[in-house]
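Q: What structure does this chain adopt?
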Amino acid sequence: LKLLDEPALQDGSEFRNLMNDSHHGNADDIKFTDVVKNNSNCCKVQRLVESAHEEYERWMRKDRLAQDTIKPKTPDSSSIIKFELPVYENLAAVTSDSNLSDINEKTDTLSADILGDYAVYVVNSDSL
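A:
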């Protein structure tokens, strides 16, 4: 919007007339003093054009990212993970000869339900 509102680019401005003369093949009619007189406008408009170009590039990258963030399809019901595991608060008393079923301090159960609507994927190849 800054680029479109720039006074140097409005109809009838000296800078715009200079650019039009240059663009439409009348460059031979342009004097060095005309360019020097509009030097600050040249620099300002160049910065605005570069800024607009950078903004456009960011916008293009943003659009591409939107395609990459599409939600994957739900896995087949046959591949849904189901498990229930006891959670023991204190395993310090367990030795290599002990069996986990000997521990009576079961405090909670960890099940696949905790995953809710999340999917778990196993990557079997290099992922980098």
